[in-house]
Automatic annotation (TrEMBL):
Membrane topology type: Peripheral membrane protein
Family under the similarity heading: Belongs to the cytochrome P450 family.
Record field: transmembrane: 6-23
One Pfam assignment: p450
Domain of life: Eukaryota
Gene Ontology CC terms, in alphabetical order: endoplasmic reticulum membrane
Source organism (scientific name): Helicoverpa armigera (Cotton bollworm)
UniProt name for this protein: Cytochrome P450 CYP367A2
Compartment(s): Endoplasmic reticulum membrane; Microsome membrane
InterPro entries the UniProt entry points to: Cyt_P450, Cyt_P450_E_grp-I, Cyt_P450_sf, Cytochrome_P450_Monoox
């Protein structure tokens, strides 16, 4: 009886496997031309990635070293082709054949739904609606709020005990949160400070993305029963409720405000645009509003904290940035977008931070139509998941000398000319590039100017000991630790 049942199951599995191979024969034919590690039946190469999330980047690096700029790996039946050649990366990200997010982004959907970050059928319209809030004119209108919040942060940091180190991210994220709330979310200062569960949301965001990344990288957590048995489903439900409560309060407050008046087009926040558009249901409005909140305030805080930490460790660069800042912007007064464009030393440190801590360590896209790369040698079949290893591209020794060192001089004009321009992709490329690059750049640089006006930063440990933490984006595992000494009239406790 049992033997017969097993034989039936085995026969069904074999038939299913043969049917799958027949229906995917074109994919298998093209995949055979791409190098990669041997794959097991059913699991593919999933066992390679059975490591802690912090080790994922090392595994990808090992595959890059073994197979070069092009290699494949299977996650179950899903074919992934990794491309690290800069020219092909630009071609692929700019192509209309590769403009849907990959299957791993589906694991974000329970938290934030389909939309700008996760793709889906409506992402183009949602992006089009939100885009005006991120353009240069809107950012100009947001500048006074950036200045106000950055100055408040700078004053607070300047009163820290200079003998005690601290994780500057915990303070910076409060500044970026208030800035995003009062600009992109369209909230008043009072509303921004009294959002339901805001402090909890800000404190637990990293844990939420860690949970999502764990499920992305541990195949067994994608089995619903196991996900529930190990308690991960319970955590997911907690985060879903937290996101819903927080975003519901933003949308509720904006609906109430819009009953009284409508903001000018040039300074309207994204929440207002989604509400007024009229094409989205309540859940879609809340989820896309939250997506743009978290991708703006948390990402900006990570990058700004990285810049501050690097300046603390590079005193020569800190002085260059400070002296140029005093010459261009002055020791006091609001910072303008035009002035920020003239801070070339700050821009080099900013770009080096983006290189070292990419906003996304890996990008995954779905190939919707066949596309040929590598000078015609490789054709990506439809249905393939394209993987772009940005972290590894930004640390490729062919393009970056001593890639694990922090060296802002890489972005001196004479050094940039020597490098393939496609080897640096900080905000992605093409129709799904980072919507907030202008917004984030202005906010981050304004924060840096104000902090350096009030404080001189000093290192808390060594740059050689930085441990990376990967949970969608790359950050410091042990925090962005610095010390701050108050600066008065260009002098530090009596010393120039």
């Amino acid at each position: 009886m049992w033997f017969e049942a097993l034989m039936v199951i085995a026969a069904a599995v074999a038939i299913g496997w043969l049917y799958w191979r027949w229906t995917h024969r074109r994919m298998l034919e093209l995949a055979a031309k791409v190098p990669g590690p041997p794959a097991l039946p059913i699991l593919g190469n999933a066992l390679i990635f059975m490591v802690n999330p912090g080790e994922i980047l090392n595994k990808v690096e090992a595959l890059c070293q073994t197979y070069g700029d092009y290699f494949k790996f299977w996650l179950g039946p899903d074919l992934n082709i990794c491309v690290k050649n800069p020219t092909d990366i630009r071609t692929l990200l700019a192509s209309n054949k590769v403009n849907q997010k990959g299957p791993l982004y589906e694991l974000l959907v329970p938290f934030i739904g389909y939309g700008i970050l996760t793709g889906g059928p409506t992402w183009r319209n949602q992006r089009k609606t939100a885009k005006p809030s991120y353009n240069k004119k809107s950012v100009e209108h947001f500048t006074p709020i950036f200045n106000e919040e950055a100055e408040q942060l700078a004053r607070f940091l300047s009163h820290k005990d200079p003998s005690v180190s601290f994780d500057v991210f915990k303070d910076v994220v409060k500044c970026t949160t208030q800035s995003v709330n009062q600009t992109l979310m369209g909230l008043s200062k009072e509303d921004s400070q009294n959002l339901h569960r805001m402090e909890e949301m800000v404190a637990r965001t990293r844990d939420m993305y860690q949970l999502i990344f764990e499920r992305m990288t541990k195949w067994w957590l994608q089995i619903p029963l196991i996900y529930w048995l190990v308690g991960k489903k319970k955590k997911q439900l907690y985060f879903q409720k937290l996101v819903d409560d927080f975003s519901s309060d933003i949308v509720r407050r904006r609906r109430k405000a819009l009953e009284v008046s409508t903001p000018d087009e040039e300074c309207m926040g994204v929440a207002d645009r989604y509400i007024l558009q009229g094409d989205l249901n309540e859940n879609e409005i809340k989820r896309d509003t939250f997506t743009l909140f978290t991708t703006s305030q948390e990402a900006a805080a990570k990058i700004a904290s990285g810049v501050l930490m690097f300046l603390a460790h590079l005193p020569d660069w800190q002085e260059k940035v400070y002296n140029e800042m005093i010459e261009v912007v002055g020791p006091s007064g609001p910072v303008t977008s035009e002035q920020l464009k003239l801070l070339h030393n700050l821009d080099m440190v900013f770009k080096e931070t983006l290189r070292y801590f990419p906003i996304a360590a890996l990008i995954q896209r779905t190939v919707e139509e066949e596309i040929t790369i590598n000078e015609g040698k490789i054709t990506l079949p439809a249905g393939t998941s394209l993987v772009i290893p940005l972290h590894h591209l930004h640390r490729d020794p062919r393009h970056w000398e001593q890639p694990d060192r922090v060296k802002p001089e890489r972005f001196l004009p004479e050094n940039v000319k020597k490098r393939d321009p496609n080897a640096f992709v900080p905000f992605s490329l093409g129709p799904m590039d980072c919507l907030g690059r202008v917004y984030a750049t202005a906010l981050i640089k304004t924060i840096i100017v104000w902090v350096l006006r009030y404080a001189r930063l000093e290192p808390a440990d060594s740059l050689d000991n930085i441990k990376l933490h990967v949970a969608i984006s790359v950050s410091c595992a042990d925090g962005y630790n610095v010390r701050a000494r108050p600066r008065k009239n260009g002098r530090i406790n009596g010393f120039t």
